[in-house]
Amino acid sequence: MKRNLRGGLYMFDREINQLVSAIKNTNEYKQAELARKAIDKNRSLKKQLEEYANNQKKLQGRYKDEQLKIKIEGLNRSYESIFNHPDVIKYNQASYSLNNMINNIYVDIEKHL
């Protein structure tokens, strides 16, 4: 074990690296990377997605509960054409699959603790 300077937690560096390597070798990760690279190549689309994320964060900082829900729905409507772009659809699907896989890993770890 080795002390982690970031948070003072003990980390298992070798085991973490093995887990990360295993994740990177999954189809879920590879598909998410391909989808992200496709978006990165389209500068206009990437910029619009970044603007959406920034606007969403601003709303989350300003509003709560029902007001936030209404504001986010309006934001989503204004970016609807972007969400229907084939590269964005592919990216969202790939990201969902990767996140789901990582969540399942977390659940499995939690079961064994």
Automatic annotation (TrEMBL):
<dbReference type="Pfam" id="PF06133">
    <property type="entry name" value="Com_YlbF"/>
</dbReference>
<feature type="coiled-coil region">
    <location>
        <begin position="35"/>
        <end position="69"/>
    </location>
</feature>
<protein>
    <submittedName>
        <fullName>YlbF family regulator</fullName>
    </submittedName>
</protein>
<keyword id="KW-0175">Coiled coil</keyword>
<dbReference type="InterPro" id="IPR023378">
    <property type="entry name" value="YheA/YmcA-like_dom_sf"/>
</dbReference>
<dbReference type="InterPro" id="IPR010368">
    <property type="entry name" value="Com_YlbF"/>
</dbReference>
